[in-house]
Amino acid sequence: MPSPFPGMDPYLEHPDFWQETHNRLIVAIADSIMPQIRPKYEIAIDKRIYEITDTDSKSNGDSLLVGIPDVAIKRQSNSPDVPTRSVATVTIALPTTVKVPIPEKIKQTYLEVREMATKQVVTAIEILFPVNKRSGEGRITYFKKRQSILGSLTNLVEIDLLRSWEPMPVLNSSIQSDYRVLVSRSPRRPFAELYAFNLQDSLPIFPLPLREEDVEPIVNLPELFAGIYDRAGYDYRIGYDREPVPPLSEENLVWAKELLQETGSRDN
Predict the structure, then answer these.
(1) pLDDT band at 56; cut points 50, 70, 90
(2) If we measure between CA atoms, which residue out of 122, 104, 105 comes closest to residue 113?
(3) What separation, in Å, do the N-terminal and C-terminal C-alpha atoms of the chain show?
């Protein structure tokens, strides 16, 4: 069954689903592009690793441990028995359970389209992860790589399907949207194409930049996403009776509830 939403399904942004959705979309894009670019190009799935600590993230839902409840603080109800013959009063300090920041490794996959003859990277395809968007070491690391690509001869496709945190900067900062796809062709910089869309919109279909003389392959996000949703069995794995995480705006929440009720995904 297809997703009840016309475009991005906000329930897939939940940390229980996003890692899987991200990886499935990476593979789906690679598989759909390959027949369109061979034999001149190859497409490689690469991986980078972020090592960050819980102190790199903020409060209000940005924790690395989203979806895992805080450790409950439990105190003893009764003090230990103290012999009645003791002259001095013994005071025993009871400990509180706390969490300490520990390093956590986050593995993120991305795509590179390379020229077969030279192995030169022609186009980088990034699907953003929470670590790329929230403030901290992860965002700084990704931003440096992004700037390096934008200052090179490599094209960049940046897909942002996460509503939370700050989007990656573009000079026209007045553009507001839930989601976005940035297509930056090296010869046309500093100009780039921004596909800005919201929860109620369909996912965009866009051409993938290669060399100027090439016919550009098409990335059909709606078709790819429908296939991922079906193969992953998200229709019976997602509990649409619950509120999505991260939460929706008030306007989107009203719209989403009505949509889910109309499609039979949520009880009235």
Answers:
(1) very low
(2) 122
(3) 20
